[in-house]
Design goal:
The complex is a heterodimer of chains A (566) and B (162). A 6-stranded parallel beta sheet of chain A has the order 3-2-4-5-7-6, with helices on both faces. By secondary structure, chain A is α/β, with parallel strands linked by helices. Chain A is globular, with a radius of gyration of 24 Å. The relative contact order of chain A is 0.11. By secondary structure, chain B is an alpha+beta fold. Chain B has 2 domains: 4-78, ACT domain (Alpha-Beta Plaits), CATH 3.30.70; 86-158, ACT-like. Chain A, domain 2 (Alpha-Beta Plaits, 2-Layer Sandwich). Chain B is built from 4 helices and 9 strands, in the order E-H-E-E-H-E-E-H-E-E-H-E-E. Classes of the chains: A alpha/beta (566), B alpha+beta (162). The structure holds thiamine diphosphate and magnesium ion. Thiamine diphosphate binds next to helix 17 and helix 20 of chain A.
């Protein structure tokens, strides 16, 4: 048969759909099973970022999605290429980030034969994707790809994997552009129930000590402006989860900072004392709630979320509201306009005053002595960047100090692996964010342990001229684990000493990046200034106080208000 | 909160891997499955899965919501006994020495079931009914000697309005 004009290969169909979906960037790594796809990709204007490890591809796509508001896309080969993506996928799944992962697969006739580089990636990723597909017939490819993008970005977003066998990519079929996707078994509820909305308003009117608890759902639904409006109009203080940082301006007087295990004193105390907690786009992770039966024990809880499974999973609520966070908030704002709340200033006076007292007693103080305090590095970074940088993090103490001492006034500026907490996330995520926002300053706040988990991506940053900055809070420990050992295991530091590490300055230079080090407090500011203002990618190695701990801390399983303060 | 038995049925896309998603969800989240039954409906693109689980009300709520969240699951229902017909079929192979043959047949008669296979020393009995009926006949046959048993697990349908 002569190749017909309308006959496209599977690889060509993939390229067509990607462009229909507005994809202009892919993070990937090639191999035998995707060689046909790569061959076709090179003929399109789509930009391909060649990572150095497939885990990096998914984290980069994750960071890209968060910084751009678009779906992130990765492309990897079968077998080991596919298995290397699993950690990245699991992280995106826990954090509800829209990513489409295209994996190559062995040809259909070999599936099930233990062929070379065959792995059942659909089976492996079933519990950590929002949905996944094995494309067995080329005729289904276009429709499946369309569905994949639709599912990834709609409702509660998440990663979707599409496994494409080599022959499906190679063979030809007639392609007709696909109609907009409609699925009978998948219809997220965006519009909240009207009666429930009115009940929320009534609860606010009754309440004397109300507060808002906002999470990643507000950011994902692009509802930050609506949330800010809502909180200010009702004069309700706002705490956020780790994923919700920036959903409400961190410098607003009503902002309580983060809730949870390493939340602020005032946020956790307020949660214990409030009589109404309006939770929006959160899922009540155990790192947030502490002991669930004592969580917000005096409060009626309103829970707004687009995913019904989030509601009443971990915490009982008085008023559930299924719907999109942004839409729900704007409906609430509309209702509020019609209500006379009376003298709010007067009504809230005692409550806000109490919160202010907690702010004074539980201030986030530290003494900057002769060794560099990690908190000081983050605070200085905040000051120099004027809060404008996109911050990614690794995992551990570095992540918590980033959340505590960098105040996020905007959504999409704090990019962290919240649910999975995967070390090695920050650098590739920073690369993805930098690709999405070339003009922004992107900084990975890192630990000395975590940065070694995906350090190879420095080569990616250099290859594409991406000036990401890595700030290592180098305590020569797996610090967060060491902190638990110090506090709960009688200082037995089993296997957490990271004294043996590469010279990060030389390592930076070996990759072709700028390497800088500060060992004394008086060097912190100049190293940051120099590193951040350089047009190059840079690693800044800060030798911080080795045994500094993150406080406040709610021991695992304790009530939120039972905080260790020093 | 107390655990109770629930019959949950769902309509799902009749595609490879869908059952694995459902079963994987139960395994991964620590929900339990006591029995499971899957077959095509009159629409070849849709299958019906019926499963029996034991859960307290909050866990049952999660089970239902989590099932609905699966992309290939179209509809989920809790087949409450008061509103649904529930049936199970069992094939029971009983020992039937000459001295017991009459008694076995008498039980078959009382429970209105069928002998579908017979030999010198056994009968295979086909019995259909609700949980109580199956439990009762199994109880009566046990002392005589059950060699093997195969049960379908419960299937259920809501009663239509009278
Ligand atoms: C991939 C992975 N492995 C193990 C852990 C467990 N873990 C959590 S924090 C941490 C220590 C991280 O050390 P470092 O990056 O130096 O950060 P620090 O806490 O010292 O700031 C470890 C090992 C993890 N979160 N992720
Ligand atoms: Mg460390």
């Amino acid at each position: 048969m002569k190749p017909n004009e309308n006959m496209l290969t599977g690889a060509q169909i993939l390229m067509t759909v990607l462009q229909e979906e507005g994809v202009d960037t892919i993070f990937g790594f090639p191999g035998g099973a995707v060689i046909d796809i790569y061959d076709e990709l090179a003929k399109t204007p789509i930009r391909h970022i060649l990572v150095r490890h497939e885990q990096g591809a998914v984290h980069a796509a994750d960071g890209y999605a968060r910084a751009s508001g678009k779906v992130g896309v990765c492309l990897v080969t079968s077998g080991p290429g596919a298995t290397n993506t699993v950690t990245g996928i699991a992280s995106a799944y826990m954090d509800s980030i829209p990513v489409v992962i295209i994996t190559g697969q062995v040809p259909t006739h070999l599936i099930g034969n233990d062929a070379f580089q065959e792995v059942d990636i659909v089976g492996i990723t079933r519990p950590c994707t929002k949905h996944n597909y094995l494309v067995k017939r080329i005729e289904d490819l276009g429709k499946i790809l369309k569905e994949a993008f639709y599912i990834a970005r709609s409702g509660r977003p998440g990663p979707v994997l599409v496994d494409i066998p080599k022959d499906v990519a190679k063979n030809r079929t007639a392609y007709t552009p696909i109609e907009p996707v409609r699925m009978k078994s998948y219809n997220p509820t965006y519009q909240p129930n009207k009666w429930q909305l009115e009940k929320v308003i009534a609860l606010i009117q009754e309440s004397r000590r109300p507060m808002i608890f906002a999470g990643g759902g507000v950011i994902l639904s692009k509802g930050s402006a609506e949330l800010t409006d809502f909180a200010r109009k009702t004069m309700m203080p706002v705490t956020t989860s780790l994923m919700g940082m920036g959903a409400f301006p961190g410098t607003d007087p009503l902002c309580l900072g983060m809730i949870g295990m390493h939340g602020t004193y005032r946020a956790n105390m307020a949660t214990g004392a409030c009589d109404l907690l309006i939770a929006i786009g959160v899922r009540f992770d155990d790192r947030v709630t502490g002991r669930t039966d004592a969580f917000a024990a005096q409060a009626k809880i309103v829970h707004i979320d687009i995913d019904p499974t989030s509601i009443r999973k971990n915490v009982l609520v008085s008023l559930p509201l299924v719907g999109d966070c942004r839409i729900t908030l704007s409906e609430l704002n509309r209702l509020i306009e019609t209500i006379d709340f009376g003298d709010l200033k007067k009504q809230r006076h005692d409550w806000l005053d109490q919160i202010d007292q907690w702010k004074q007693t539980g201030a986030m103080n530290y003494d900057q002595t002769t060794v560099i305090k990690p908190q000081y590095v983050v605070e200085t970074l905040y000051r120099i960047t004027q809060g404008q940088a996109i911050i990614t993090t690794e995992v551990g103490q570095n992540q918590m100090w980033a959340a505590q001492y960098y105040h996020f006034d905007f959504p999409d500026h704090f990019i962290t692996s919240g649910g999975l907490g995967v070390m090695g996330f920050g650098l590739p995520a920073a690369i993805g964010a930098q690709v999405a926002q070339p003009k922004k300053l992107v900084v990975d706040i890192a630990g000395d342990g975590s940065i070694q988990m995906n350090i190879q991506e420095m080569a990616t940053a250099i290859q594409y001229g991406l000036p990401v900055k890595v700030v290592i809070l180098n305590n020569r420990y797996l610090g967060m684990v060491r902190q638990w050992q110090e506090l709960f295991y009688n200082k037995r530091y089993a296997c957490t000493d990271m004294e043996y590490a590469p010279d990060f300055v030389k390592l930076a230079e070996a990759y072709g990046a700028l390497g800088l080090r500060a060992t004394r407090p008086d060097q912190v500011e100049s190293v940051l200034t120099q590193g951040l203002s350089s047009p190059q990618a840079a690693i800044m190695d800060f030798w911080v106080d080795r045994e500094e701990c993150v406080y406040p801390m709610v021991p695992a399983g304790a009530t939120l208000t039972e905080m260790l303060l020093v | 909160m107390t655990e109770e038995k629930h019959v949950v049925t769902m309509l799902v896309d009749n595609q490879p891997g869908v059952l694995a998603r459902v079963v994987g969800l139960f395994g991964g989240r620590g929900f339990n499955i006591e029995s499971l039954c899957v077959a095509e409906t009159t629409d070849p693109e849709i299958s019906r899965i019926t499963l029996v689980t034991r859960a307290d009300p909050l866990v049952l709520e999660q089970i239902m919501k989590q099932l609905r969240k699966l992309i290939n699951v179209i509809k989920v229902r809790d087949m409450d006994k008061s509103k649904a017909v529930q049936r199970e079929m069992a094939l029971i192979c009983v020992k039937a020495k000459p001295e017991h043959r009459a008694e076995v047949l008498r039980i078959v008669d009382i429970f209105r079931c069928k002998v579908v296979d017979t030999g010198i020393e056994h009968y295979i009995i086909e019995v259909t009914g609700d949980e109580g009926k199956l439990a009762a006949i199994i109880n009566l046959l046990k002392p005589i000697g059950i060699k093997k048993i195969a049960r379908t697990g419960i299937v259920a349908l809501f009663r239509e309005p009278k």
